[in-house]
Specification:
Length: 273
């Protein structure tokens, strides 16, 4: 469990308690300002003694105006969705791994909010399950976007690396960023190198990782391309955030490729660099 200061106050149940009270007051007293509603509840209703009206007022300001109060669990779920869209808290990346994995990142107060929303019921409603599915889908989309941006950055780093290398070696050609136009070519950059027989193609598969120790995911299709081109094919592996480069040959990688056995055929392999 993490410190409560790591997550905005609006996610706490004490803020939701205040927000629900304010919204009900505004419903029953049209034309009242939210701040005046909070003040009235502070002064007159002992049920709100532990409520966080500062967080509650912030929360009310973020909620859709048409959010209904008829079902409080629905209200809280929709409010949580609105907050997540605003804050993009780091813990949403845990949602694809299950409810309890995400719960470990929340304080007891924040867990109470999720429970009040019916999100931790032993037998959750279909609406609650759909809420979790949407959150997990959003987390996967965010991860795909981050990895996509990191991958493009790595390709650009490799392109610049090859430009400088070729200048140093006196090669009067320019590398081509193949993956930008054809993502199914089997390599990301077509560069050039000097051989005993003159200038030859050098095909580069670019990988990136932000994990420690660094590791890459290699697909069967990528490996088949590597096997096809052999010495004319190489791997650039960029470690983020330092942007350090490791270069591996096809022979280097071959020791880590699994065998097909029986009726099974591998499709992806994770390789620690």
């Amino acid at each position: 469990m993490i410190a409560s200061s790591d997550i905005p106050a609006e996610f706490r149940m004490s803020a939701f308690t205040a927000a629900i009270g304010i919204c009900r007051y505004l419903r029953d007293h049209p034309g009242t300002a939210a701040e005046d509603a909070a003040l009235a509840l502070r002064r007159s209703d002992a049920d709100f003694a532990g409520a966080d009206f500062t967080g509650g007022l912030t929360l009310v300001g973020r909620l859709p105006e048409d959010l209904a109060l008829a079902d409080i669990s629905v209200f809280i779920r929709e409010a949580l969705s609105a907050l997540i869209e605003v804050h993009r808290p780091w813990w949403i990346k845990l949602s694809p791994y299950g409810r309890q994995r995400l719960a470990s990142a929340l304080t007891l107060d924040e867990q109470q909010t999720f429970r009040a929303a019916g999100l931790y019921d032993p037998q959750p409603s279909s609406e609650a399950i759909e809420w979790w599915d949407r959150l997990a889908a959003q987390a996967r989309a965010d991860q795909d976007e981050r990895l996509g941006a990191q991958g493009r950055r790595a390709e650009l780093l490799s392109l610049n690396h090859e430009i400088e290398r070729m200048k140093t070696e006196g090669i009067q050609l320019a590398p081509v960023w193949t993956a930008l136009d054809d993502n199914a070519a089997g390599y990301d950059i077509r560069s050039y190198s000097k051989t005993l027989y003159g200038i030859a193609n050098l095909l580069i598969e670019v990988k990136s990782t932000s994990r420690t120790p660094p590791r890459i995911i290699l697909t069967r299709g990528e490996w088949e391309a590597a096997q096809k081109y052999q010495a004319a094919y190489t791997f650039h592996i960029w470690q983020f955030p330092d942007e350090t480069l490791t270069i591996r040959t096809v022979q280097d990688i071959s020791a880590h490729i699994p065998d097909d056995r029986g009726e099974g055929a591998w499709q992806k392999v994770e390789i620690i660099i």
